[in-house]
Design goal:
The complex is a heterodimer of chains A (284) and B (794).
Chain A: E1 7-10, H1 14-24, E2 28-31, H2 37-42, E3 50-53, E4 63-66, E5 69-73, H3 78-82, H4 85-90, H5 92-100, H6 104-109, H7 112-118, H8 125-131, E6 135-140, E7 143-148, H9 149-152, E8 153-155, E9 158-159, E10 166-173, E11 179-187, E12 194-205, E13 208-217, E14 224-225, H10 227-233, H11 240-248, H12 264-283
Parallel strand pairs in A: 1-3, 2-3
Antiparallel strand pairs in A: 4-5, 5-10, 6-7, 6-10, 8-9, 11-12, 12-13, 13-14
Chain B: H1 14-18, E1 34-40, E2 46-52, H2 54-57, E3 62-67, H3 68-73, E4 105-106, E5 112-118, H4 121-129, E6 132-137, H5 144-147, E7 163-170, H6 172-181, E8 184-195, E9 204-210, E10 215-220, H7 225-236, E11 244-247, H8 263-275, E12 279-282, H9 285-291, E13 295-306, E14 312-322, E15 352-359, H10 374-392, H11 396-403, E16 416-417, E17 423-424, H12 430-440, H13 442-454, E18 458-467, H14 475-480, E19 489-495, E20 501-505, H15 514-526, E21 533-537, H16 554-581, E22 588-591, E23 594-597, E24 603-605, H17 606-614, E25 628-633, E26 642-651, E27 658-668, H18 675-695, E28 725-729, H19 747-763, H20 778-793
Parallel strand pairs in B: 1-12, 10-11, 14-15, 20-21, 27-28
Antiparallel strand pairs in B: 1-5, 2-4, 2-6, 3-5, 7-15, 8-13, 9-10, 9-12, 13-14, 16-17, 18-26, 19-20, 19-25, 22-23, 23-24, 26-27
Helix pairs in contact in B: 10-19, 15-16, 18-19
The chains are: A alpha+beta (284), B alpha+beta (794).
């Protein structure tokens, strides 16, 4: 439980962090809440030459309304997000996902940016960010770019994040007033990560489902939006039957993971059950 | 003064534990101390071609590196097994050596190959990473029954069929006949899965050789420091016992996994002697998963025969017990004398037979784990009973009432002689189940269950009425059964001149609260304040001797030793008091810490008598000064706690997830000294038992990799998985020990597991499910429903 030797650098600002990142090169790792990085280092699964600590950068911790978006600083903890009344009113699935992460201690230290950069396939965040059509802001010493969540997640522990880039912000469009959303989860009993995490966001008008966004985490090596489920319900007036029919289409287009907690077959079944539960919760 | 026996006194040890002021092995820092990291095998079975330590020794701060060859060259013996079981044909069990570091081949993932000692723990770990071992892979055998296959790889080349021993108990002919002639036979083939103990404190050991005195001190996380000293000095390192001191300071939980003598203990002592500096090793959590002895791992086929009235006629059991790669200290007695001997349960079964084979595999060694053998026996019996009730369409509670052994107090009525060697001390079984049924409101539940089923909801109730053998044990009895040690206990009561009392006990406390319970007993019997009593344990230098803490024996055996010394104190005190009060001893009575002349107000206090014993100016002629008594207590019999546990569950029909709705238990642990501590022990035990039923289980892949070697992969029960436990008790005192106590540390674990599994099976009764392999994960429960639904549809 002792990491290999590494250089520790503490960044006081985003600018400083980016400079350090450019200086230290690909052998450097960003430390925010440390809940993914430190265990990996202690088990020597990851032995970075340098660790750049950004946990003290106050300017990266915020939740605010900015025009048509709600924006979350990358160093905002899961705990702060779980307690946000602003998010709770506008996009409840974000708050629900935050509250599902780990335990109180993890939520009080772990950050949304850190979790996204780590890209654990069973992490809670991706489902609600995909369903919420979030964008992720990435900064480097050469500038800033914005990537849609759907393009950000590329595979098992793999993202679009470049070697010298830092996640600075998560941007969520404020949904239409007639939108309801939720995040439901079947958890792995030991780690309490998601075996199946399903986020659903539905905008209704005149009794029919105008816009349906359904996304999963934990099911496949890459989190995904499930368009088969979405399309099955879009334009429909919700009923038990068409909710059931839409849920039946869950996880059909992906390679489903299997492990000793949940085989492929069982995970696929759970994806359907949790898709239905999420849709029912939103449409009830 | 009101008696404090039976009062829920708060635990005196908690203040230091809760404020972070405990003194655990890893807290100890000695001058000049070095740190060890152990190079462990990543393979389950491989020949060692060579070990290259050159890069490790070159690491800055590395002091020494030792390998299996060094150990072999030093002619150090392996860690021994403490219990001999013979083959059916009389041959002695196979006892392959377990060296401190292996030189020839590795036999499980975690087997120790080399040790790197350095100035810091970090340097030791850096060095360990650079030890390069050239392995030649061998095929591994993982599951117990597979080890018996004709073409199975041999874990030890000189142990044919990987068989440590085969063993039987009971009347085979009578049992075969009973099963043959039974009106109904309930059969069950199941796995009692391997568990990993997961004490909160990882194991640790510090070896400290002092050149000047030629003394060795071992600090270790042990449940029985004196036994470790005996094994270490006499069997492993060949050191003079009086030059070896073993200290078990505060220990954070054991659950059986800290009973055995581990290689790391002997290795640290030997290494310290080599480098003439203290050496500390503290397990990392994944080392705990890999190398703390595991528990259970039985594959069993059991049959129970009934007559037309539902009376049990016979029980036939065939088990393969997986002992892992090497024999741990008490591994051999767990599946035999702590399992086969418990198959009578609470029932009058007239014919019982068990046939058991113990095998070696390429897995972590298995030893006692909370309950040790008794949970396996209870699981088998209680699962058979609930299944039989369902098959015969009899109520499971009624089936038990029909078969309970009638009450006996062990005083006016004799103890109950079982078909499997033991004689129960005292028992009254019907009331515990009656009380538990009342608590759970059984009839109301059945109504609610029927209504819920109408709505498609799956509610279930499961029963477990158990007995265990605790207070291990009469030395002569266990000696005749193969134990290589006595199982008495010692206690010294030293009254100080000011009347304060120090009590030196062989029972080690690692969570049980002895410092409180023992102090309550001493304070009560001597009529002094609890604050005036100090309980000292865990140091072979201060405590005369001890056999340690396991098998729920501390109060029944250790407490009895304390009582013997207290009697001696009071006997001597009475002589001094009589002298001071100028009366005959027979004219005195002792109460509330005072000797009083009967029928008068003349008295003398305990403190004055103590002072007189140490300042013997006006003193009885011929009486020795001082007041310090040591006693050894060897019990006349085991003790036999019992009880009834009932679980109520709801199963999610869509996901198979089990929600434990209620857990009700009525236990009888004999007299109770501290109800809060007893309830706490039951709570922890029940949580542990529920853990086995629903969550826990070691998982090895086919190549022998331990897949579940972290808390991310091995599910422990957590507070939010569990309902509030509803407890009650009856009291049937133990007739053969002075406190009338039976033991409570393992009861919950033994009882809870089958109650929960039975409840899930009951919930799934519409699907015709009769067994699900533990742990009952949501997927397994869901699959059971799918299989049965499909079959029903066909």
């Amino acid at each position: 439980m002792i990491p290999s030797e590494f250089e520790y650098c503490r960044a006081g600002s985003v600018e400083e962090a980016l400079d350090l990142l450019a200086q230290k090169g690909p052998d450097a790792k960003i430390l925010a809440g440390g809940h993914s990085l430190l265990p990996a280092m202690k088990l020597r699964l990851n032995s970075p030459g340098a660790v750049i600590d950004i946990s003290g950068i106050g300017e990266l911790s915020y939740i605010k309304e900015e025009g048509s978006h709600l924006v979350i600083g990358a160093c905002t903890t899961h705990g702060d997000i779980a307690k946000s009344t602003l998010l709770s009113e506008k996009i409840p699935m974000i708050v629900e996902a935050a509250a599902e992460i780990g335990d109180v201690q993890v939520r009080n230290k772990g950050t949304i940016g850190g979790s996204l950069a780590h890209a654990d396939p069973a992490a809670d965040w991706p489902a609600s960010l995909l369903a919420g059509e979030a964008e992720i802001v990435l900064a480097s010493s050469s500038g800033e770019r914005t990537v849609a969540a759907v393009d950000f997640f590329q595979g098992l522990f793999t993202t679009d994040l470049g070697e010298n880039e830092l996640i600075t912000e998560i941007r969520l469009p404020i949904p239409d007033a007639y939108t309801k959303s939720t995040y439901v989860k079947f958890e792995q009993p030991a780690s309490r990560f998601a075996i199946v995490g399903c986020a659903a966001s539905i905008t209704r008008s005149n009794g029919s489902c105008d816009k349906v966004r359904v996304a999963f985490t934990g099911v496949s090596s890459t989190p995904f939006r499930d368009q088969a489920v979405e399309q099955a319900l879009e334009g429909q007036a919700p009923s038990d039957d068409n909710i059931e029919a839409a849920a039946e289409k869950a996880a059909m287009s992906v390679e489903v993971m299997g492990d000793h907690f949940a085989s492929q077959e069982y995970r696929k079944h759970l994806a359907k059950v949790y898709a239905r539960r999420a849709l029912q919760a939103v449409l009830s | 003064m009101a008696s404090i026996i039976g009062k829920s006194v708060k635990r005196v040890e908690d203040k230091r534990f809760l404020t972070g002021k405990g003194n655990f092995t890893d807290d100890i820092v000695l001058p000049g101390m070095t740190y060890a990291s152990i190079v462990r095998s990543h393979h389950a079975h491989a020949k060692i071609n060579s070990v290259d330590i050159s890069q490790a020794t070159a690491v800055d701060g590395v002091v020494a590196v030792f390998t299996g060859t060094d150990i072999a060259n030093a002619e150090i013996g392996g860690v021994p097994c403490g219990w001999q079981v013979d083959f059916k044909n009389g041959d002695t069990m196979k006892e392959p050596p377990h060296p401190l570091l292996v030189a020839d081949k590795v036999r499980f993932v975690g087997d120790a190959v080399a040790v790197v000692i350095a100035e810091t723990a970090a340097a030791a770990q850096d060095g360990a990473e650079l030890v390069s071992v050239d392995y030649e892979m061998l095929e591994a055998v993982v599951q117990g029954p597979d080890a018996l296959a004709a073409d199975a790889p041999l874990v030890h080349d000189d142990v044919p069929h990987n068989t440590c021993y085969d063993w039987e108990l009971g009347d085979k002919t009578a049992t075969d006949e009973a099963i043959e002639n039974a009106e109904h036979v309930t059969k069950l083939e199941f796995v009692n899965q391997r568990l990993i103990p997961n004490a909160i404190e990882p194991r640790a050991a510090i070896g400290h050789y002092e050149e000047a005195s030629e003394k060795y001190t071992l600090y270790t996380t042990s449940q029985n420091p004196h036994l470790i000293r005996l094994l270490l000095s006499a069997f492993v390192l060949g050191l003079p016992e009086h030059k070896v001191r073993v200290i078990s300071p505060d220990v954070g939980g054991g659950f059986g996994s800290k009973i055995p003598h581990y290689i790391e203990e002997a290795l640290m002592v030997w290494c310290s002697g080599q480098i003439k500096r203290p050496v500390k090793w503290t397990a990392e959590r994944n080392e705990s998963f890999m190398t703390d002895t595991h528990g259970r791992d039985h594959v069993t086929k059991a049959e129970m025969g009934f007559d037309a009235d539902g009376k049990i006629e016979g029980l036939r059991v065939k088990t393969v017990a997986n002992l892992g790669a090497y024999l741990s200290t008490f591994s051999t007695c767990v599946p035999t004398y702590l399992h086969g001997t418990l198959l009578q349960g609470l029932y009058t079964t007239p014919a019982i037979h068990i046939d058991l084979t113990a095998v070696f595999t390429n897995t972590t060694p298995v030893d006692a784990l909370r309950g040790a053998g008794r949970p396996e026996a209870t699981y088998l019996l209680e699962r058979l009973l609930d299944n039989a009730a369902r098959e015969m369409n009899v109520d499971p509670a009624e089936l038990r009432f029909k078969n309970f052994i009638p009450p006996f107090d062990g005083v006016d009525q004799p103890g109950y002689q079982t078909q499997v060697a033991l004689q129960y001390d005292s028992g009254n079984y019907q009331p515990v189940l009656e009380k538990a049924l009342d608590m759970v409101d059984y009839q109301e539940f059945r109504t609610r269950q029927a209504e819920a089923r109408e709505e498609g909801r799956l509610l279930g109730i499961g029963f477990s009425t158990y007995i265990e053998a605790c207070g291990i044990a009469p030395s002569a009895v266990v000696g005749s059964l193969g134990a290589r040690a006595g199982l008495y206990e010692s206690a010294q009561v030293r009254v100080q001149p000011t009347g304060k009392v120090s009590v030196y006990v062989g029972s080690h406390s690692h969570g049980q609260g002895h410092e409180t319970t023992f102090a309550q007993v001493v304070a009560d019997k001597l009529g002094i304040a609890m604050e005036d009593v100090e309980i000292v344990h865990g140091d072979s230098e201060s405590v005369a001797f001890g056999m340690g803490t396991y098998g729920s024996r501390s109060l029944a055996v250790g407490g009895s030793a304390i009582m013997k010394s207290i009697d001696k104190v009071l006997e001597k005190g009475a002589k001094i008091a009589a002298h001071k009060l100028e009366v005959a001893e027979t004219d005195l009575e002792f109460a509330n810490g005072q000797w009083t002349v009967k029928g008068s107000d003349q008295s003398i206090g305990f403190g004055d008598v103590a002072l007189t014993a140490y300042v013997p100016h006006d003193y009885p002629e011929g009486l020795e000064p001082g007041m310090d008594f040591s006693s050894f207590y060897d019990p006349a019999n085991f003790t036999y706690p019992f009880g009834a546990h009932i679980a109520v569950v709801e199963v999610d029909p869509e996901t198979g997830k089990v929600k434990l709705e209620r857990f009700v238990a009525c236990d009888d642990v004999g007299n109770v000294i501290n109800p809060m501590i007893v309830d706490g022990q039951l709570h922890g035990g029940i949580a542990h038992g529920i853990g086995q039923a629903l969550y826990e289980g070691a998982i090895y892949d086919e190549s022998g990799q331990l897949v579940s070697a972290s808390f991310m992969d091995y599910t422990m029960p957590r507070a939010d998985d569990l309902p509030m436990f509803e407890l009650d008790r009856t009291v049937t005192p133990c007739p053969h020990n002075p406190l009338g106590v039976k033991g409570a540390g393992e009861a919950g674990t033994i009882a809870a597991t089958p109650a929960v599994v039975n409840a899930v099976i009951d919930a799934l009764s519409p699907f015709g499910v009769s067994d699900i392999t533990m742990p009952l994960t949501p997927e397994r429960v869901w699959k059971a429903m799918q299989t049965q639904t499909k079959e029903a549809a066909i």
